[in-house]
Each structure stands twice: as C-alpha cells, then as structure tokens.
UniProtKB/TrEMBL annotation:
<feature type="transmembrane region" description="Helical">
    <location>
        <begin position="127"/>
        <end position="150"/>
    </location>
</feature>
<feature type="transmembrane region" description="Helical">
    <location>
        <begin position="325"/>
        <end position="343"/>
    </location>
</feature>
<dbReference type="GO" id="GO:0016020">
    <property type="term" value="C:membrane"/>
</dbReference>
<dbReference type="GO" id="GO:0022857">
    <property type="term" value="F:transmembrane transporter activity"/>
</dbReference>
<feature type="transmembrane region" description="Helical">
    <location>
        <begin position="449"/>
        <end position="471"/>
    </location>
</feature>
<feature type="transmembrane region" description="Helical">
    <location>
        <begin position="291"/>
        <end position="313"/>
    </location>
</feature>
<keyword id="KW-1133">Transmembrane helix</keyword>
<feature type="transmembrane region" description="Helical">
    <location>
        <begin position="182"/>
        <end position="202"/>
    </location>
</feature>
<feature type="transmembrane region" description="Helical">
    <location>
        <begin position="214"/>
        <end position="234"/>
    </location>
</feature>
<feature type="transmembrane region" description="Helical">
    <location>
        <begin position="246"/>
        <end position="266"/>
    </location>
</feature>
<dbReference type="InterPro" id="IPR050327">
    <property type="entry name" value="Proton-linked_MCT"/>
</dbReference>
<feature type="transmembrane region" description="Helical">
    <location>
        <begin position="418"/>
        <end position="437"/>
    </location>
</feature>
<protein>
    <recommendedName>
        <fullName>Major facilitator superfamily (MFS) profile domain-containing protein</fullName>
    </recommendedName>
</protein>
<keyword id="KW-0813">Transport</keyword>
<dbReference type="InterPro" id="IPR036259">
    <property type="entry name" value="MFS_trans_sf"/>
</dbReference>
<dbReference type="InterPro" id="IPR011701">
    <property type="entry name" value="MFS"/>
</dbReference>
<feature type="domain" description="Major facilitator superfamily (MFS) profile">
    <location>
        <begin position="89"/>
        <end position="471"/>
    </location>
</feature>
Amino acid sequence: MTAPNDNVSSIDSATTHEAPSDNSTPATIVQLNGDLEKGTQPETHQDAPSQAGGPETNTATEKDATAPALTPAPSPIGPPPDGGLQAWLVVLGAFCGLFVSFGWINCIGVFQTYYESHQLSNLSTSTVTWITSLETFVMFLGGPIFGTLFDSYGPRWILLMGTFLHVFGLMMASLSTEYYQFILAQGICSPFGASAIFNASVNSVSTWFAKRRAFALGVTASGSSLGGVIFPIMVEHLIPQVGFPWAMRICAFLILFLLAISNATLQSRLSHRPKPFDIINFLRPLSELKFVLTVAGAFCFFWGMFLPFTFVITQAQRYGMSGHMSSYLIPILNAASIFGRTLPGYLADKIGRYNVMILTMYFSAILVLALWLPSRGNIPAIIFSALYGFGSGAFVSLAPAVVAQISDLREVGVRNGTFFAVISFAALTGTPIGGALAPDVLHGSYTKLQVFCGVVMIAGSTLFVLARGVVGGFRFSKV
C-alpha cells in the first residue's frame, strides 16, 4: 500500500485505522493495538454459529466478527508527534548509531591507502579494495534481515547484537595480518554489526516523525558525517603513536561507549509483534514502478558515489599533494557532509524530498566531471572534497525519507531493507571496478575511473527524475 507524497502525516494516521484488504487483519490489529485477544477473536466467533445454530447467536457472532474491522480501536496509535523530548532522544541515539556505523564506513579511504603501503603492499589495488567494498556491501545487504527483525521485535535486540559484532570485528581486525583475516574481521563481521545498528537507528527515527521526517533523518545521518571526520583523524594520529593494533582498539572502545548511549535511548513508537520471514514481502515492493525507478536511480548513483571516498587521497597524492595534507581530505569531505545531510533535509520537508534529492544528485555528478576529473593540484582537490561532501551527503539522509514517503509506515523496515539490499551490490562492485580502471594509483591515470563515476551518477539522477514523474507528475510541485 502506498500513500500520496504530499501528506505524510495522514499516512501515519491512516495506517493505524485502516484494515488491510488481505486476510491479515487479526495480526494487524494485534500489532497496532497490542491486544492479542482482539486479534484472534474473529476466528473464534466465526466457528460459533455451527455450534450454537440459533439465529440470535448467528447475528451476535456476525456483529462481533466485523467489529474490529468497522470500529476504531479503543487506543489507536496516533500520528507521529514530530518532536518532543522522547522523539529527540531517539534521534540522539540514532545519531550515535550512525556515527559508529556509517561514520566508520565513511573513512574507508584511510584504510585503503594504509593497507596498500603496509600489511597488504604485495597485493594489487583492485584486490585490496574488496576489503573496503565488502564493508559497504555487507552493511547494506543486512537490510532485509534487520528490517524484518525490526518490524517484528523493535530495535532493542538488534542493537545489542550489532554492538557485539561491530566491536568484536574491529578487535579482531587489530590482530589481523593476512588478507583473509581482514576480509573476515573488517569486511564481514564488523559491517554486519554496523548494518544492525544502522537499520535499527534509521527505522526507529522514521516511526517518530512524519512532516519533519527528512530533517530528523538528516540530523541522524549527520552523525555518520561527524564519524567520518573523527575516525580518520584518530587513525592517522594514533597509528604512529601506538601502532595499528591499538589504534583499532581505541576506535572500538569509542564505538562501544557511543553504542551504550544508543542502547539507552533508541526505541520504536510502534507496538511490534513477531512476523514470519517471507521473501515475498521484500520482492513485493519491486512490483511498483515508482519504487523500482527509485531503487534503480539509487543503484546507479551509489555505483559511483563511494569512488571519491576511496580514491580522493591517492589521486591527490598522484598529482603532488603531500601524504600529511592528503590525509585530511576525507575529514574535509565528511565535515562538509554534515551540512549536506541536515540543510537539504530541512529544505526537502518544505519543497519536496524528490525535488531536493534530484538537485543534489546532479550537483554531485557534475562536480565529479567538472572539478575532480581535471583537477591537478592541491586547491582543486580540497575544494572538490568539500563540495562533494555536501552534495553526496544529502543522498544518505534523504534516501530513507524518500522510501518512507512512498511506503506504508508499518512496512518501512521491510521496504528500507529491500532498498538498501539492492544498492549494496552497487557498493560491492563499484570500488573494485574503480580499482581496475586505475590499477596504478600512484603513477597511473584516474581518467577512466572518474568518467565512470560521473556517468553512472548522472544516470542515477536521471532515473530519479523519472521516479519523481511517476510519484507526483512532471509539473513543478512539492514531491
């Protein structure tokens, strides 16, 4: 079930009163009202006529059986409050969650450069990129799993599991020396925990906000930008002082502290009841044209989006920037992304989420082709990092808001799971493709990599224009 794009608050209110047209009405009532007996009552009463056989019994039974579908629940879940202490505490917990999950993923360029010159210097660039691309891939691929768990149980147990796996994976990475060990620890275990944290955080915030959802998710997503500023600087300064193993452990302890805040404050506004895992639930959104076009546009954009995060350091070093100065390009990129994830979100609630998404996507793609491609000095590299951080940051914060806009709130976990699972394959393949297009990162040309990055991002932006047309038409309006 989808809803109009221009009245999000009515979506949330309507989903708590309307009964679905399929046979899942009892389960829905259980989920929304938290009353198990009322959820199972219709089945019991439908069997009653054959046992009693009296006319009065039949009449009473019919009334009872239809009551849950026709009468509003005694204590329905109203529309999201769009603010208040509890709602903003959830945003605080989600902010910390994205700081340690997506924020850690945002500093992959630092590890790409370090591994190529230290532990894995005997391997090719394309081989090393599988570690960093797996991080992004696994974090988003876990969306369907954790989306289902969120819809069934809420964020509590997902967060606890994610906390353990993320911290444990980084601790194991601090002990790693072989390629396969980095793959298992930093490429699979740690990002799988980060996936649980990311999905629990984003989905929880979506249940507390409607009209201000894009702004709230923007504030949440800015946590990942701040993490992308802090972690690279920490790693860069800690490794010379305490060595790589203890640098990773100190980062893991900081992550554990912030996740303690997330576990204490993050909660869902909805009542959650266990649901069976059904793969059809994840495939069903792909039958909607607007959802397919949205996912296809995000896939193409995501295919190129992380290439600057991974290669901006080595590209700047290739054309003369010192190693010390180039290490600050990722923090600069992520610092600008803080504003890119908050300001466009605020604007999107005013003029339309699809509208702002399209503008920032085209802006990022043009920066790649018009500024990063011809850049050959320090100043263009720094300016590109700042501007690209602002433009690409909007995609991360607006993507969950766009999915929620075209979804039933009760299915936001599943539909976000489908969305992020699809684009995870773009994250998995994009960086290795970039590594293959620029095999000699310190002496070769980056032209093919940069052209690929810009072209696929433009293709994704154009697909979003088509998705906007399906959702709200091609005339200028709030979409």
